[in-house]
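Need tokens for this chain, all 135 residues.
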Amino acid sequence: MGHWLDVNGEAIYGTKPWTETRQWSPGELPKVEYNKEFMTPYDVAKLSEAPSGGKAAIDAFFTAKGSAVYAVLPRWPGREFFVKGLDAKRVRAVALLGGPAALHFRAGKGGVSVQLPDLPATLLAQPAWVLKISQ
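Here are the structure tokens for all 135 residues:
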């Protein structure tokens, strides 16, 4: 985890929540019930696994610092990732922390589509990946 934080720590340390704290895949969202003292179990690790059985899963967690938005991806999405809720006109650059310098991106309906690189097996075996979106 220490090595992961060496590479991706800027997405964690000194950040605040972005407008959205997470992005869900299509599917049925889990029901979380609140009472005065606690909420029902909410296992983030299980909610971050690949979606199955019509259930939604967390595709990304978001933090922000200055003019940057960080998308923390709990599983590698493949060749493309769509970030909902971004104003494409404001995006100046997108980078994969610890990866190639700049990634190609384009405006999409309601967000930005980011083209991701093919990663070697050594980089696919980590707990999460971080996209830095500079605005």
